[in-house]
Amino acid sequence: MNQPKGTVALAAAAAVVMFVAATVTIGMAMLTAVVSGALPGGGCGGDGGIGGGSQSIGGQDWNAEQTDNAATIVSRVVERGLPKRAAVIAISTVIVESRLVNVGHGDRDSLGLFQQRPSQGWGTPAQVLNPGAATDTFLDRLVALPGWATMAPGTAAQAVQRSAFPDRYAPQEGPAAALVDRFWVGPDNPIPAPAVPGGPNVQLASSVFACPDQGGAGVPLAPSDIDPGQVPPGFTPPTDPAQRAAVTYALAQLGKPYVWGGRGPDGFDCSGLMLAAWSAAGVPIPAGTVSQKSAGSPASTATIAPGDLVFIPGSLGSPGNPRHVGMYVGHGMVVNAYDSSTGVILQPLSAWADEITHIRHIAGPPGQPAPDAALAQSAS
């Protein structure tokens, strides 16, 4: 049917106006989200984490892993009673060295957030790949510098790092200060007296975290033949060195408390236990459950191997946004920091089977397809 050209033109114009209006509305909604801090899909109700998930801070966009690591650094400074200046120096250093990402590569044997070198006395790979431990090592060396708190921007960072590019740190103090302001709670701390290396081993300061504890496992602690607090007699760890190191570390934490934001050694949240365990194997993985669900490569119950990360919604998550993670240790069992009242325990994989949303293979050989046997053994 032929319509008059004027009618067609008016209809086309109306469609264009509606499209532009919809586009502007979406754009304004996104702009509002950015101005308010949370990015689309981010925030405590989005990708979450102790740092508050993806958000815009100081005019820059940071993802969930980056804000998680920034919050961890601030918490270490708070726990040690150091001034905000120490957190600004540390975060400006990490922005330059790794862009606030826990990387497993760098110049020569440099690793982790601060690109610390095990061969140069910065600690073992497990220590430099654990954001909390790496921050403590950096702070030990920072506060040993006379007058560190009053040095010009970038000078203290360079004195610790001894970089071949000393001018890179100072320009990042503005973004670092904005991140510190986001997480710091309460008044500044006074400048302490010089301290010897080896800061106090204390838990993370949960008051600096942007999001509240996002819940525990949310699966029942059903009776089984597995003792939740003890490695079964005759347990054989995996033969692959990396898998063996990660599994052995995770199992050694049985009975320790659940601590929101904890990266060890005295307490862990669910993702912190996974990070610390794989750090012990010298393998970097991201901080936070949301980031860890993309670590490594996909696996399934048919190819699950010791050391694989197993994700379930948890008490406050969903199938598309799981909030709880454990490690498959072999023999039909998963170790996890269950919740704040239970701590780190072993559970049968079969107790999780109906809830599993993702499985991620981190390192070592994949498992062989035998899901029925594995689940049957875990249920026996």
UniProtKB/TrEMBL annotation:
<dbReference type="Pfam" id="PF00877">
    <property type="entry name" value="NLPC_P60"/>
</dbReference>
<protein>
    <submittedName>
        <fullName>Cell wall-associated NlpC family hydrolase</fullName>
    </submittedName>
</protein>
<dbReference type="InterPro" id="IPR000064">
    <property type="entry name" value="NLP_P60_dom"/>
</dbReference>
<keyword id="KW-0788">Thiol protease</keyword>
<dbReference type="InterPro" id="IPR038765">
    <property type="entry name" value="Papain-like_cys_pep_sf"/>
</dbReference>
<keyword id="KW-0378">Hydrolase</keyword>
<keyword id="KW-0645">Protease</keyword>
<feature type="domain" description="NlpC/P60">
    <location>
        <begin position="240"/>
        <end position="363"/>
    </location>
</feature>
<dbReference type="GO" id="GO:0016787">
    <property type="term" value="F:hydrolase activity"/>
</dbReference>
<dbReference type="InterPro" id="IPR051794">
    <property type="entry name" value="PG_Endopeptidase_C40"/>
</dbReference>
<comment type="similarity">
    <text>Belongs to the peptidase C40 family.</text>
</comment>
